[in-house]
Design a protein that fits this description.
nine-stranded mixed beta sheet; 15% helix; alpha+beta; Rossmann fold; 6 domains; 883 residues; Immunoglobulin-like; single chain
Length: 883
C-alpha cells in the first residue's frame, strides 16, 4: 500500500516538473536580434530596457538623425518562452521614445567631432547690449529624446549672446528639459544619462533656471511683456522636438513630460510683447508650420524645415544642422573656432537675413529652411548689435531696391525709378526733360518716398525733409557740383532746391509721392540757350533727412568724393537724358566727364545697353561721341586707346561707336578737371523701325580701381524725325588721273561722310577725289539731315591700269603700256612666272611715263602674271604666254 501511494504521487507531479524543465529565458541579445531582423538593411539605432519584470522593451529609432517627432517602433518581447517555441513579442509605432531607462545595443556613433567644453571667446569691451533680450527653449519631452546635442545647441547660442554680443545674463531666459532638477534628464552620446548641466558658458555659474513647461514659458513671456518696449529686441530660440497635427501648418513644440505648446498658444504669448523687433529661430521638426500663426509686423522668423518636414541633426557633429549653421553665422565662427564669412555685404553686422542665407546655403540635411520677415526691412537690418529703425523712409535706387544698406542689387547708382521730372503739375509717372521759357519758368521734381519701417511716419511727431539738388548732366558728379560750388565759364554747374517738409503721413510699408517745385535756371536754359544748342540736360539728387540743413554727412561720401548712393537708402540719383529732335534738327546730348578726386586719375568711358534689343541701335544708326578739346587732350595724354571705335583723321575728336561694347580708354584727367562730350545718333532711313526707342548707358570707370564711378542714361527717341530724300552721287569727271565725286542731297543736309569698299573714311565734305583700285573701287556717301542718314553708292572703273601688253605671245621681252601716266614714284610693274617656283622680275615706272619695257631673260615658258602696283596696292593685272 505504501509503495502504491508513492507511485501515485510521482505520477501526479510529473507535468509540473516537465513544464518547469522546458521553459527558457529570452536574453537581451535575442530580443535585439528580433529588431535587427525586422529592420535589416536600414540605418536604425536599437536600444533595450526593462518594460516590466516579464517583458523587454526594444526601442528602434527608425531615423536617428531626425529630430523628434518622427516614427519609431516599440517591441514588447517576453523575457521567457516555452522550449522549442518562437519568442513571443508585440509591437507598436510611436512618435517619441519611451520614458524608461534604455541601454544602447546597436547604435552608431555618427558624431566625428564632439564638443569638449567649447567656448566662444568674450569680446573685450565694457559695453553691454541692454536693449536685447533672449529666450532659449529646449523642451526635451523625456530623457531618451533629450539628446546631448540639444544642450550643445543651447550652449553655443547662449555663449554667442553673452560673450560676442554682450547681452546681460539677466536678459536671457533659459528654459530646458526638467530645469534645475538634479535627476538625469539627458541621454548622452555614449548611451548614459545625466542631468543637463546648468552652466552653459562654463563660468561656474548656473544659467539654466526653468523647466520646459507651458506654465514656465507663459510666465517668462508675461514677464517680458511688462519689461519690453519698442526700443527693445527679443530673440526667441527653440531647439529639440516638435510635431504637427496636419503636416502643413498646425504645428506644436514638445515640452518636458510630453506636454506640448501649440502654435496658436505661442502666438498669443508673443502678441503680448511690445518689442520693437522680434527675431524667432525655430529648429524643431515641423517648425515651418508656426509661420502662419506668429508672423507679424516687426518680426523675422527662420525655421529649420517646412510645416511638413522633420529637422535633422548634423551627420558629423553633436549639433543640429540648421541651427548650428545659423548660430555660426551670427557668431561669425563655428563652435570649433573656424571663422565664417556670414557678413555678406561687409557692413560689419550679421543681419538676420544674412544669417538665414548663410545657414540655408550650408544646410546639408534633407530639410527646407523657411524664412519670413514682416516687412522685409526687419530681417535686412536687424542684428544683435543693430536695431532697425522703426520709421525708415527711403528712396529706391532701382526697382529691386528694398532699402537694405548697402544696396547690392543696383549695378548703377544713377537710375532711381523714384525720381522724375514733369513740366506740368500732374500725376503722370514719366520722366521729361525740363524746358524753360518766359511762360514756363518752373518744372516739378517728383520723388517717391517709401516707409520700410514698422511704425507709421507722422509729420507732426517726427518731421523729416526732402532735399533735392540738380547739376548739368554728367557721368560723375562731385559734392561741390551738387551744392553749387563748381563753376564752368563763370556759371555754376548745379545747385540745390529749397528743402521740402515731408508733410504727408506715410504708413509702414506704404509710399507717398512728394512734389518739389523747381525754379529753372534761366541763365543756363534761356540766356545761354544751352539746352537748345547743346541739349545739355540735368541730373537730379534727392536725400531724405531729419535735418533741415542741406549738408551731406561725411559718412555718406565715397572715396571718390561722390555721394554714397548705394551705401545709404536716404540718397538717390537720376541721370537721364531723353534725346529727341530739337530745333537743332540733331539727336544730340551733352554731358560733363569729371574727375572728382584731388589727384590725377585715368578713366574709361564705356557703352552698355539696357536690353539685348537696344544693341540694334548700332545697326540702325551711327552713334558717335564728340570730345571737347580738353577731353581730347586728356585722351591723348592717356595714349588714345579704344575698342570698337572708328574715326576719321580729318575730324579726330569725333569717335564713331561701332557696337554696344565700344570703349574709350585712358582719359587722363587732372585733379578736379571736368569738360564736355556730346553723344549724337543719326538713323539710317532705310533701317528705321516706327515707334521704337533705344536706351543706352555711358559709364565712367576708374581704371585704377575698376570701380564704376558714375554714368548717364540716354533714351534715344527718333520718332519725330522727318524722312529725307536719298543723296545722289554726281561724277563730274577725271582730274589729274583721279575721279572727282560730288553728292547732291536735301538742303538741310549738315554733313557728308565718304567711305570706300573697305569701310575707310575717305572724305567728310560734299565733294571727294578718289583713285579706285582693282580690289577697292566702290564708294558710299552717307548724308545726314535732321538726325536721319541716307546713302548712295557707286562702282568706278579703273583710271590707272594696264592698257596693253605686247607682244603676245612674248619671247624675250614685253612692253607694258598704262592707261594713264604714273603720278607718283611708287609705281612699278611686277612680272611673275606661274612655273619655276614663281620667278619674279620688277621694273619701276618713272613718274609721268606710261610705258615700260621688261626683259624676260631666262624666265621659263608658260603663263606669266603681270601686275601694276602703286602705293603698295595692286591697281591692275594681266596674263600672257611666253614661248
Amino acid at each position: 500500500m505504501k509503495k502504491l501511494l508513492t507511485l501515485l504521487l510521482c505520477l501526479l507531479s510529473m507535468p509540473l516538473f516537465a513544464q518547469i524543465a522546458i521553459r527558457a529565458e529570452v536574453s537581451e541579445d535575442e530580443a535585439v536580434d528580433i529588431a535587427k531582423n525586422l529592420f535589416a538593411g536600414r540605418d536604425v539605432d536599437i536600444y533595450i530596457g526593462d518594460y516590466s519584470s516579464a517583458d523587454w522593451l526594444v526601442f528602434i529609432d527608425e531615423e536617428p538623425l531626425k529630430g523628434w517627432e518622427h516614427w519609431c517602433t516599440y517591441l514588447y518581447v517576453q523575457k521567457t518562452r516555452l522550449f522549442n517555441t518562437p519568442i513571443r513579442y508585440s509591437q507598436s509605432r510611436e512618435k517619441l521614445p519611451p520614458s524608461i531607462d534604455l541601454r544602447p545595443k546597436y547604435v552608431k556613433n555618427r558624431a566625428t567631432r564632439a564638443p569638449l567644453n567649447i567656448k566662444v571667446p568674450k569680446v573685450s569691451s565694457n559695453a553691454t547690449n541692454t536693449k536685447s533680450y533672449a529666450v532659449i527653449l529646449s523642451g526635451g519631452a523625456n530623457k531618451n529624446s533629450n539628446h546631448e546635442r540639444y544642450w550643445n545647441d543651447c550652449s553655443f547660442i547662449y555663449q554667442t549672446l553673452v560673450n560676442k554680443y554682450l547681452i546681460p545674463k539677466d536678459n536671457i531666459y533659459v528654459i530646458m528639459a526638467d530645469g534645475t532638477n538634479p535627476e538625469a534628464d539627458m541621454r548622452c552620446v555614449d548611451g548614459t544619462y545625466k542631468s543637463s548641466p546648468l552652466d552653459l558658458d562654463f563660468d561656474g555659474s548656473p544659467d539654466l533656471k526653468y523647466a520646459a513647461t507651458k506654465a514656465n514659458v507663459s510666465s517668462v513671456f508675461n514677464e517680458l511683456s511688462r519689461k519690453l518696449t519698442e526700443e527693445n529686441h527679443l530673440f526667441f530660440f527653440v531647439i529639440d522636438h516638435g510635431g504637427s497635427h496636419d503636416g502643413v501648418s498646425q504645428s506644436y513644440i514638445n515640452l518636458w513630460g510630453r506636454e506640448v505648446l501649440e502654435d496658436y498658444e505661442l502666438s498669443t504669448m508673443l502678441n503680448k510683447i511690445n518689442a520693437g523687433a522680434m527675431n524667432i529661430v525655430l529648429g524643431q521638426c515641423y517648425s515651418g508650420g508656426f509661420i502662419d500663426n506668429i508672423a507679424k509686423k516687426g518680426r523675422v522668423i527662420a525655421t529649420a524645415s517646412t510645416g511638413g518636414q522633420s529637422s535633422y541633426a548634423c551627420s558629423d557633429l553633436l549639433y543640429d544642422e540648421f541651427v548650428y549653421h545659423w548660430t555660426s553665422a551670427v557668431a561669425r565662427r563655428t563652435a570649433y573656432g573656424v571663422s565664417v564669412s556670414s557678413d555678406l555685404d561687409y557692413s560689419g553686422h550679421v543681419t538676420m537675413d544674412e544669417a538665414f542665407t548663410f545657414a540655408e546655403k550650408k544646410d546639408r540635411a534633407n530639410e527646407t529652411p523657411m524664412y519670413n520677415s514682416t516687412p522685409l526691412s526687419v530681417g535686412e537690418d536687424l542684428a544683435f548689435d543693430k536695431m532697425p529703425n522703426l520709421v525708415d523712409l527711403y528712396i529706391r535706387d532701382n526697382v529691386e531696391d528694398t532699402g537694405k544698406e548697402p544696396n547690392l542689387t543696383a549695378k548703377e547708382s544713377w537710375k532711381s525709378p523714384d525720381i522724375w521730372v514733369r513740366n506740368q503739375k500732374d500725376d503722370v509717372e514719366e520722366h521729361e526733360n525740363p524746358y524753360y521759357s518766359d511762360e514756363h519758368p518752373t518744372a516739378f521734381v517728383k520723388v517717391r518716398i517709401t516707409n520700410r519701417g514698422t511704425k507709421d511716419y507722422k509729420s507732426a511727431e517726427q518731421p523729416q525733409y526732402l532735399h533735392v539738388c540738380w547739376t548739368k548732366a554728367s557721368t560723375n558728379i562731385s559734392i561741390d557740383a551738387w551744392k553749387g560750388r563748381e563753376l564752368y565759364n563763370n556759371y555754376v554747374t548745379g545747385f540745390y532746391i529749397v528743402p521740402t517738409l515731408i508733410r504727408e503721413d506715410i504708413p509702414a510699408g506704404k509710399s507717398a509721392v512728394i512734389t518739389v517745385t523747381w525754379t529753372l535756371p534761366d541763365y543756363m536754359l534761356d540766356s545761354m540757350s544751352d539746352n537748345d544748342t547743346e541739349n545739355h540736360h540735368f541730373c537730379l539728387f534727392a536725400r531724405v533727412s531729419k535735418e533741415h540743413t542741406d549738408d551731406i554727412d561725411k559718412e555718406l561720401i565715397t572715396d571718390h568724393n561722390t555721394a554714397d548712393i548705394r551705401g545709404s537708402n536716404k540718397l538717390a540719383q537720376k541721370n537721364l537724358s531723353i534725346i529727341r529732335k530739337g530745333s537743332s534738327n540733331d539727336l544730340t546730348s551733352t554731358v560733363f566727364v569729371r574727375n572728382t578726386m584731388g589727384t590725377s586719375r585715368s578713366y574709361s568711358l564705356e557703352i552698355r545697353t539696357s536690353t539685348e534689343a537696344d544693341k540694334d541701335l548700332f545697326t540702325m544708326a551711327q552713334v558717335s561721341v564728340e570730345m571737347s578739346g580738353p577731353i581730347y587732350q586728356a585722351w591723348e595724354r592717356g595714349g588714345s586707346n579704344s575698342t570698337g571705335i572708328k574715326r576719321s583723321p580729318s575730324v579726330p575728336r569725333v569717335l564713331q561707336l561701332e557696337s554696344a561694347s565700344s570703349k574709350i580708354s585712358g582719359i587722363s584727367l587732372n585733379k578736379n578737371e571736368f569738360e564736355k562730350i556730346s553723344l549724337e545718333c543719326n538713323f539710317y532711313r532705310s533701317l528705321m523701325i516706327p515707334n521704337r526707342t533705344y536706351t543706352i548707358d555711358l559709364i565712367q570707370r576708374d581704371e585704377a580701381t575698376g570701380d564704376i564711378v558714375g554714368g548717364e542714361t540716354f533714351i534715344i527717341d527718333p520718332r519725330p524725325l522727318s524722312i529725307i530724300s536719298p543723296p545722289i552721287i554726281i561724277r563730274p569727271g577725271i582730274i589729274d588721273g583721279k575721279y572727282q565725286l560730288s553728292a547732291e542731297a536735301p538742303d538741310n543736309t549738315t554733313n557728308y561722310t565718304w567711305t570706300d569698299k573697305a569701310g575707310n573714311i575717305v572724305g567728310n565734305t560734299k565733294e571727294v577725289t578718289v583713285s579706285p583700285t582693282i580690289r577697292n573701287n566702290e564708294y558710299t556717301v552717307t548724308a545726314k539731315a535732321g538726325g536721319i542718314l541716307d546713302q548712295a553708292s557707286i562702282t568706278l572703273d579703273l583710271i590707272q591700269g594696264i592698257k596693253s601688253v605686247t607682244p603676245s605671245p612674248a619671247t624675250n621681252y614685253i612692253d607694258v603700256i598704262l592707261k594713264e601716266p604714273a603720278d607718283n614714284d611708287l609705281t612699278y610693274v611686277k612680272v611673275q612666272s606661274v612655273q619655276d617656283n614663281g620667278r619674279v622680275v620688277e621694273k619701276e615706272v618713272v613718274r609721268n611715263n606710261s610705258q615700260v619695257r621688261i626683259e624676260l631673260g631666262t624666265m621659263p615658258r608658260g603663263v606669266i602674271l603681270i601686275q601694276l602696283i602703286s602705293d603698295n596696292e595692286v591697281i591692275d593685272n594681266a596674263k600672257i604666254i611666253k614661248n
